[in-house]
Model the fold of this input.
Amino acid sequence: MNRAPVLLSGGAPPDRAGWAQEAAEVGGRPLVTVTRLEQLGPALIVRSAVLFVPDLLALGDAGQQLLVRTLTSLDERPKLVLGLARSESSVRQAGLVREDLHYRLRMGLLNLDAPGMREAITARRAEAARRAAMPPPRPSPAARPPPPKAKARPAQRSRTAPRLKSARTMKPAKKTRPAKAKKGSKRR
Done:
């Protein structure tokens, strides 16, 4: 799952929540929603989740500082989907968002008030609802893998065939010495 943070500006609260829900579904992760500063610390511990903050300004400077620390840490963290009720530029000009936080979120900035964005979100939701209502496709017979073949059994030897010894099981032949003559007997 892509863990790059996303900053959603503008749009209605259901649009921002829908975006976070879709990010959680695509990643197969639970969605954790944080609306107050007290909830942020425990939510950041859930590393395999999508953490959604509907309005970043509700966390205040302390919450933003904790998010910066989380983003600069090398530890594994949840995917962050942060929302702003107002436009990003107006919030930044008013000094309500920390510059170091904005710097880390600038690549994932998404303006939901941009022309055509609302229609794109509506179309994505309709497509997701249509896919959820459809039964899962059944694989065609041609696409099914062939059944596993039975392992070949080693050939059995017949009872009448002689048993051959392998080189490993054969005993070495005894060496024979030439016969020595017995003491006391002379050959003539």
Summary: The two ends are 104 Å apart (CA to CA). Residues 6-133 form a domain with the Rossmann fold fold (CATH 3.40.50.300). The mean pLDDT is 80.
